[in-house]
Specification:
Elements: E1 7-10, E2 51-53, E3 70-81, E4 88-97, E5 106-108, E6 136-148
Antiparallel strand pairs: 1-6, 2-5, 3-4, 4-6
Amino acid sequence: MILRATSVQYVGSPPNAAGAAPREPAPGEPDPATPEGDPDACSYWRYCAIDGFLASCCGGTHAACPPGTEMSAITWLGTCRNPVDGKDYVISYNDCCGKDICGRCLCQRNEGDKPVYYTHKSNDINWCMGTQSSIYNSTVAVVVGVATES
């Protein structure tokens, strides 16, 4: 989905490029253990704009890269609606880099994807720029904000 003209309430710290351990859900962030929250399924609500292999199927989680990989600090963003609470969340899709491609749980939802000339709105780019290795492994979906009415 395309980001709408709303204000964003920042939730927690930005994703750690060094692949920090998973964090506790921030206040207002939905619980991934709900029936609509299976992070190993492409239908998981956070994956509305994802294009890649799910880190949760590759030894990581929906918000943490697999061991031995590095989370890219360069990312694309999407806005996904959580069906449980009806809120829109700003999602940072970070590639996990440094190990061979995972090859499991390919998920190509691409909702709101734009042509490559809108680099910041495209998920068809290897986002492993700025990491020690440009080898793509998988992708995480980290909640970075809650969309609120202006």
